[in-house]
Design goal:
152 residues, mainly alpha, Arc Repressor Mutant, subunit A, two-stranded antiparallel sheet, 6 helices, 53% helix, 5% strand, elongated, WH_DNA-bd_sf
Length: 152
């Protein structure tokens, strides 16, 4: 199963949007993510509906942050993306009457629920401003923010 990278990709985009002045077009974001602008618009629409970004159509239009990074957590973005499963592993349900499968599923299910609760609690404590500070901490002394992924 291919991992769902939407959370990581959208966090990446939002940090870049904060670092660069102006609006980010769907085409520019798509180029940065090596995907299609339609995919970008569909994904960003969920963030817009949740109030984290705004968009304007037409010439000079594009996407901008609607809130400061300090007011957005990883959990917020995870929820805006539809709260996708955080684990690729799960229980088998091919033989629901099998007592072994039931015991395995009960134990796996409990462990996965506990792990997911811990992970989501952590997501709720980390803001996008925290991520941006992590970028700044990686810059060499006196260096400007990297311009490797220009969004405008």
């Amino acid at each position: 199963m291919r991992p769902d990278s939407r959370l990581s990709r959208m966090l990446h985009v939002l940090i870049h949007m904060d670092a660069h002045a102006g609006r980010a077009t769907s085409d520019a974001i798509a180029q940065m993510l090596s995907t299609n602008p339609v995919v970008v618009r569909r994904t960003m629409a969920g963030l817009r509906d949740a109030g984290y970004v705004q968009s304007e159509k037409g010439h000079g239009g594009g996407w901008v942050l609607a809130r400061p990074l300090a007011g957005i957590t990883l959990l917020d973005i995870h929820a805006a993306l539809g709260s996708p499963s955080v684990f690729a592993i799960g229980a088998a349900n091919e033989h629901p009457a099998c007592l072994v499968e039931q015991a395995v599923n009960d134990e796996l299910g409990e462990a996965l629920r506990e792990a997911e609760a811990l992970l989501l609690a952590r997501f709720g404590r980390v803001t996008l401003a925290d991520l941006a500070r992590g970028v700044d901490a990686r810059l060499p002394a006196g260096a400007a923010a990297p311009a490797g992924h220009v969004l405008a």
